Amino acid sequence: MYIDDRHGGPYDRGRADSYYRRARSPHYMKSDINGYVTFNSDRVLEKDMTKLQIAEYNLGYEQNEATGDFKEWG
User: Fold this and answer.
1) Concatenated DSSP letters for 2-69?
2) Measured between alpha carbons, how far is 11 from 42 in angstroms, rounded to an integer?
């Protein structure tokens, strides 16, 4: 299985949501024409994701949960 682990991709967003202890909410960010993800990038919600993209998000979330790598807020 190919995993889209680019910054802003489903796997990356799943890991980030877990890292920051946010609730599971499958999504990813579209890249701009140069391949960059910025705060202005379009967000793709679960309802518009493929089953594979949702699985990638969940894998990123679950793997981060398993490693216990969470943001320390001080």
Assistant:
1) ----STTSHHHHHHHHHHTTPPP--EEE---TTS---TTSPEEEGGGS-HHHHHHHHHHHHHHHHHT-
2) 16
What per-residue confidence (pLDDT) applies to 74?
Answer: 86
Are 52 and 66 within 8 A, CB to CB? Answer: no
Determine contact, residues 59/65, Cβ cutoff 8 Å.
Answer: no
Place of tokens 């979330």: 61
What pLDDT band is residue 1 in, cutting at 50, 70 and 90? low
Distance CA 49, CA 54 (A): 6
Q: Which residue has the tokens 């949501």?
A: 17
* Residues 58 and 24 sit within 8 Å (Cβ to Cβ): yes
